[in-house]
Amino acid sequence: MSEVIPQLLSDNDCWELVLGRNRLADGLFWYSVSTTSIYCRPSCPSRRPARAHVRFHVSPAAAEQAGFRSCLRCSPDQIDRTVRMVAQVRALLDAAEGPLSLNDLAAQTGWSGAHLQRIFKREVGLSPKQYFLIRRDERFRTELKTGQTVTASLYAAGHASPASVYAPATDQLGMSPRTYQQGGTGEHIRYALADTPVGSVLVAATARGLCSVQWGTPDTALSALLDEYPNAQLREDLPAVAPYLLALLDHLHHGTPPLALTTDVHGTAFQQQVWKALQQIPWGETRTYAEIACALGQPSAVRAVARACAANRLALLIPCHRVLPKKGGNGGYRWGTEQKTRLIAHERSAVREGAGHPEPSIHQGPASLGESSVFDSGY
Question: What pLDDT was estimated at residue 155?
Answer without folding.
Answer: 43
